[in-house]
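Researcher: I'd like a candidate sequence for this fold, 288 residues long. If you have to choose between options at a position, lean toward the conservative one.
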């Protein structure tokens, strides 16, 4: 099991080209991939996207690609027309404010003055970028796996809590028929000691009330859902969506048990189970 969050960096130099790739991933319901950095050939962008999708199933992923030949970014140029217009505009503002005019650094910092119009798509550059991407994805995968192991350990504890509460509820449910019979007898006695009540009728009412409060099926399904969740956690891979579905099913069973609850003890146990399940739900939002 892996977390959706992490960071990885890869740096590769090939044929005078230095490729630096940073990959950042955070939580997201689906895979949301964004490419940033140097302008790339369409084929290289497609290759990068394909490798990311093969390595990551879910998360908001940002891939930053920086390419350089020697010490300078490739394809850098200064648009002199844009620079002159920016200088005139900044100078006019400075004159109105009665302050010193703009220096070269301020002019160069204006949008569109310094551009990179060269698309680097030669084979050496593509290989360097993809190798750097592989290294970044490997580092990201290691971080996500480590965080996933911590998440798995915490989820196992939460599932054990839920399983223990389920066992507690099952034990309490076994006592419900006797409790229903006792409460019904006490109610009849409070009405009048002189009333003659047919024991068979009392027994029939007890059966009806106990049947309404029966939660055997819900407990069986709850145990199955907990077992499936534990198996998913132990299986590894991208299990976040399936875990999210199981959490919904577990919540449904808990709600049904709470609605059919015939005793305060069962109701109290279900409240505790829902609190534990909410912690599971929060953690699963981080699972790929």
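Model: Candidate sequence:
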């Amino acid at each position: 099991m892996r977390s959706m969050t992490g960071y990885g960096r890869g740096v590769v130099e090939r044929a005078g080209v230095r490729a630096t790739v940073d990959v950042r991933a955070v939580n997201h319901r689906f895979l949301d991939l964004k490419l940033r950095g140097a302008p790339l050939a369409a084929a290289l962008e497609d290759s990068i996207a394909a490798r990311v999708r093969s390595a990551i199933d879910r998360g908001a992923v940002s891939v930053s690609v920086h390419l350089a030949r020697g010490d300078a970014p490739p394809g850098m140029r200064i648009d002199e027309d844009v620079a002159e217009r920016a200088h005139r505009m900044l100078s006019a503002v400075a004159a109105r404010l009665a302050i010193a005019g703009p220096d070269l650094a301020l002019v160069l910092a204006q949008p569109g003055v310094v551009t990179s119009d060269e698309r680097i798509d030669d084979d050496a550059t593509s290989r360097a970028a993809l190798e750097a991407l592989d290294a970044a994805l490997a580092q990201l995968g290691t971080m996500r796996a480590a965080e996933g192991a911590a998440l798995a350990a915490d989820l196992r504890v939460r599932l054990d809590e839920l399983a223990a509460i389920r066992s507690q509820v099952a034990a309490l449910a076994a006592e419900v028929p006797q409790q229903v019979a006792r409460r019904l007898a006490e109610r009849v006695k409070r009405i009048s000691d002189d009333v003659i009540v047919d024991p068979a009728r009392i027994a029939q009412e007890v059966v009806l009330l106990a049947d309404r409060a029966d939660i055997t099926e819900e407990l069986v399904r709850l145990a199955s859902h907990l077992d499936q969740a534990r198996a998913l956690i132990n299986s590894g891979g991208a299990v976040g969506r399936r875990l999210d579905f199981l959490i919904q099913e577990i919540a449904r069973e808990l709600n049904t048990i709470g609605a059919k609850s015939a005793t305060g003890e069962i109701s109290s146990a279900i409240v505790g189970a829902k609190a534990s399940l909410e912690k599971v739900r929060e953690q699963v939002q981080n699972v790929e």
